[in-house]
Design brief:
This protein is an alpha+beta fold. The protein folds into two domains: 46 residues; 84 residues, Tumour Suppressor Smad4, CATH 2.60.200. The protein is 36% helix and 22% strand. It has four helices and ten strands. The protein has a five-stranded mixed sheet, with no helix packed on it. Strands 3-2-4-5-8 form a five-stranded mixed sheet, with no helix packed on it. The chain is elongated, with a radius of gyration of 29 Å. It starts with 15 loop residues before the first helix and ends with a strand. The relative contact order is 0.10. This is FHA domain-containing protein. It comes from Streptomyces antnestii. InterPro entries: Cell_Proc_Reg/RNA_Proc, DUF1707_SHOCT-like, FHA_dom, SMAD_FHA_dom_sf.
């Protein structure tokens, strides 16, 4: 028999907030490259099976989290860095030669490539003979890559198949780049 002063002390059940905090720290650690994929998966499994707070603490002990000021400083640096990348892109885009879009009433697409039969002939070694095609479809300009060797891009992203373009977009054919213009 036990007296009223003796009671069994079972560890308190983990709260969902504690488990969520540990899982968030593990995800952030993996995203920042502090954990390999296998270690991340194993620790996630252990976190979901943990019964005590000290088990969770052991899983995240080597994942030093940044303090408030570190987050502010690193966040500010990231914001400034992102701004400079956008600024550099805007500066380069404005300096590109203009490629004027054909008049909207044109019944045929504009073919682009090295071949003299194309509507726009680009004599550059990275441009394919028949590289790309620009056409008006449903009131939108569509740029289609025609199986070029060195690719077609819109705003720095490679076109796979076709992409909708508009005035001001940066388009690339091989290593030649232009800024689309309506006038």
């Amino acid at each position: 028999m036990t007296s009223s002063f003796e009671h069994h002390t079972y560890p308190a059940r983990l709260s969902d907030a504690e488990r969520d905090r540990a899982l968030r720290e593990l995800r952030e650690g993996a995203a920042l490259g502090r954990l390999s994929h296998d270690t991340f998966v194993r620790r996630m499994e252990l976190a979901l099976a943990a019964r005590r707070s000290d088990e969770l603490a052991a899983l995240t002990a080597d994942l030093h989290t940044e303090g408030r000021w570190s987050r502010i400083v690193f966040g500010s640096v990231a914001a400034v860095s992102g701004f400079t990348v956008r600024l550099r892109g805007a500066w380069q885009r404005e300096r590109l030669p203009k490629l004027q879009l054909p008049p909207p009433g044109s019944p045929y697409p504009l073919r682009i490539g090295r071949d003299p039969a194309n509507g726009l002939r680009l004599s550059h070694e990275t441009v394919s003979r028949v590289h790309a095609e620009l056409s008006l479809q449903g009131g939108m300009w569509v740029l289609r890559d025609l199986g070029s060797t060195n690719g077609t891009s819109v705003n720095g992203r490679r076109v796979v198949g076709a992409a909708v373009v508009q005035d001001g977009d940066q388009v690339g054919f091989g290593r030649m780049s232009f800024r689309l213009s309506t006038g």
